C-alpha cells in the first residue's frame, strides 16, 4: 500500500511543554537523525515505487559482504537499520540524498509506526479486559479462568480468533492523527502530541498523514 514520505527515528520518551496560553501539553520526543536514501525502486524496474532509507551507523565488521556492496552503490556508509517506504508516485529523491526532520513543520498531522512493548504471556482478563467471574460464594478458584471456549458436537473445535490467554504486545502498531507541536532541526528532534508505540530508544517510522 502506497504511503506518504517519512523518516526513521528513535523514541526518547515523553515530557511536557507549555503552550502560549499556559496550558501543559504532553509530547513524545522523537530523535529522527539523518536518514540517507540507500535504494530507489521504480514501477518500470521493480513493479512498484519505493524508497529505502537507513538509520544508525554500523561498523564494517557488523555488516555482511552483500550489504556492503548494497551501501557502496548509494555511497552513504554502513547502517544497521533499513526501512522501505512505498510511494504512490515516482520518488523525487536521489540516491544518497539525506532526509532530515525539516520535512515536517509545526501543525502537521503524522502517523507513527513502531513495535509495541512486549508484555509476555498474559491471561484473558489483562489481555482482553474481560470481567471475570463473580467474586462471591459458590465460585471457587475460577474467578479468572477462561471459561467455556468450545461448542457443541458440530463442528467440535475452537474457532480461530477466540479471545484467550496468550502473548501480548511486541507487535507492529501505528498511531495516527498525532499533531506535530515543534520541530527542532538543530537537534534533529520532533515533538509530537500524544503517545507513540514502543519503548524508550525504540525505532519508529514517522510519516505524513
Tell me about this structure:
- One of its GO terms (molecular function) is rRNA binding.
- Belongs to the universal ribosomal protein uL3 family.
- Part of the 50S ribosomal subunit. Forms a cluster with proteins L14 and L19.
- One of its GO terms (cellular component) is cytosolic large ribosomal subunit.
- The chain is mainly beta and 209 residues long.
- The protein has two domains: 6-120 and 176-208, Elongation Factor Tu (Ef-tu), domain 3; 121-168, no CATH class.
- The chain contains three helices and twelve strands.
- The protein has helices at residues 43-46, 65-74, 124-128; strands at 6-18, 24-31, 35-41, 49-57, 79-87, 98-99, 109-115, 120-122, 166-168, 172-184, 189-193, 202-208.
- Strand 1 (6-18) and strand 2 form a beta hairpin.
- The radius of gyration is 23 Å and the shape is extended.
- The model has no long low-confidence stretch (mean pLDDT 91).
